[in-house]
């Protein structure tokens, strides 16, 4: 049983116009096995939260804390966070030309676990995970994210989620750009990782559709750099119906 | 002028899955030692201690006399010396004004005769080669024949019997001149004339060692021929001379790899490589140079390709202080093809000025140049290329792609593409890109558990992958490890 605790997190970025505060006191606690949905308008800071949790150097934490079972996460480099069992499925996964998926997956798995996976079982594991996510076998020899369609990139993020078996995952709009079948296949992948590894999940989304497949325990309404309201799954339905007006008015 | 030319795939012998290299590394941790060149060691310098510095008529006569050469070769050397003394040091390209030609030893004899087996080699020389991993490579039959060049003379030479049976000649140039003078009378200096440039002239004057290869008509040499070179004498120039003749319909892949230990003062390496690819012959010449960072590496390489023939230069430049090298192909017959794949790494204090030269002298000829460079820690990587299409060389095509990757903000890259087109009916393509390792790329890989160094190395490896895949496995592994080593120095 693990806990990821985000407490009163303030984050700024350097822009050409100077320092800009984007997160203005975010508090969320996620325990193993829990699913937390985060919904909020464009530009409210959801991806900033996700990137900060993963340790992107562009985001400066000015106050507050992130801890994993009491350990100071903010002290860790992104690779150390991954090794500690954290994973970020990115909204915009990056291309790495000249590096095959096969090579990348194995190198990453080795780095995360601290030892190389047994080649034979690993190859099989990768192949099966790809099949389940309906990723064509030839993606193994393609370069990381290079020329992948939007939806393909998202599937490959979830492929990594399944293979790396993190304790906590942040999924940043993994459902955006997925067709109806892909949405189901990807959701099943997340649910598998959830149940097999008792993973804690922070699921950022704009649509309640994915919540039909991945049932959240909590829903956080994210507005202007903070959680405006926290509730159960029914909160998502309310948002679907009424939008963010009620919360925006309060800002 | 952006029309692309499709690569003749059948001419490329590639590793199907580049991930395979990583796979081999993962499964054979011990193999890493094969790839890690040791930079910092050197053997005791008995042979070089007494050699004379500077070059003049007497030095040239002495070299020729010791080698018991025919009169015409001595004449040729003297001519070379004259051109060398007359021609000014080039002021274009990299800065080579610091070379003190009077402080260089032009000829060092390290052992008297030639060894036939490893056991015949002196112990310190054997140590050196064992550190380069050559005996293992031999045992594994990765090499078809090894000409290991130690200082100025080839001291070890072996060729597999089946090659001899096929009539392939592979020996050091000094011996070949004695045993097969007819090739030298016809071809020596025919591809690169004595006075071609200052450094080729110097090489002609004082050359010693190098490889001679002759492949008879129709013979395909299936495994690469390899030679290893090292400079091991302080301030010693190495002036090897290589001549490769591929007769009609033949194929050969020659590989040259270099390492050098580090010394305090600057060394000069100035080789000349002449290649003749006859009708429908195909020659591939692979170089990975990893000279220590005080070596001036000024090399002239040129091939003449006859009708239907193909020349492929694969040129990796990792080490040296300054490299100026532009492998050239003269396409003299119809449907001849030239290809250069070059990769350069410029680190702290290094200037890699590399590229290629393609000269189309007949109709329906084609050529391509792919150049990739990586600059880090204040290094400078320049691409310098010439594409010349002569009158009458109609329906000829060339494509140039040069991509540069900057690892940090203090390093430099530049391109100097020259074209000289004297024919209307041609197809040309030129693409150049400069990219930087992006923060987002690094973050993506680090968020997958890779350290900053590993992430950087992966990005760089990916960048040069199109060239690495063309290398034989053991060289690709070496290159991988070298990249890792280099990135360790540049991150942080
Ligand atoms: N590098 C930057 N320079 C300037 N502004 C930035 C930068 N990065 C983020 N921002 C701003 O920070 C705010 C939060 O961005 P963020 O990407 O976190 O929003 P989001 O909630 O994920 O939005 P979306 O739903 O559209 O993905 C936005 O107003 C964005 O423009
Ligand atoms: Mg976002």
UniProtKB/TrEMBL annotation, chain A:
Pfam family, one: ABC_tran
Molecular-function annotations in GO: ATP binding; ATP hydrolysis activity
Cited PROSITE patterns: ABC_TRANSPORTER_2 (PS50893)
Domain called ABC transporter: residue spans: 4-249
Alphabetized UniProt keyword annotations: ATP-binding, Nucleotide-binding
Coiled coil start-end: none
Membrane-spanning ranges: none
NCBIfam families (alphabetical): sufC
Family: Belongs to the ABC transporter superfamily. Ycf16 family.
PANTHER family according to UniProt: ABC TRANSPORTER I FAMILY MEMBER 6, CHLOROPLASTIC
Protein name: Fe-S cluster assembly ATP-binding protein
Species annotation: Garicola koreensis
Automatic annotation (TrEMBL), chain B:
Disordered: annotated span: 1-21
GO biological process: iron-sulfur cluster assembly
Record-annotated SUF system FeS cluster assembly SufBD N-terminal domain positions: 161-226
SUPFAM superfamilies: Stabilizer of iron transporter SufD
Domain annotation SUF system FeS cluster assembly SufBD core: ranges: 229-463
Entry coiled-coil feature ranges: none
InterPro entries named in the record: Fe-S_cluster_assembly_SufBD, SUF_FeS_clus_asmbl_SufB, SUF_FeS_clus_asmbl_SufBD_core, SUF_FeS_clus_asmbl_SufBD_sf, SufBD_N
Pfam families: SUFBD_core, SufBD_N
Annotated Polar residues bias: 1-16
Record-stated family: Belongs to the iron-sulfur cluster assembly SufBD family.
Protein name according to UniProt: Fe-S cluster assembly protein SufB
Organism: Garicola koreensis
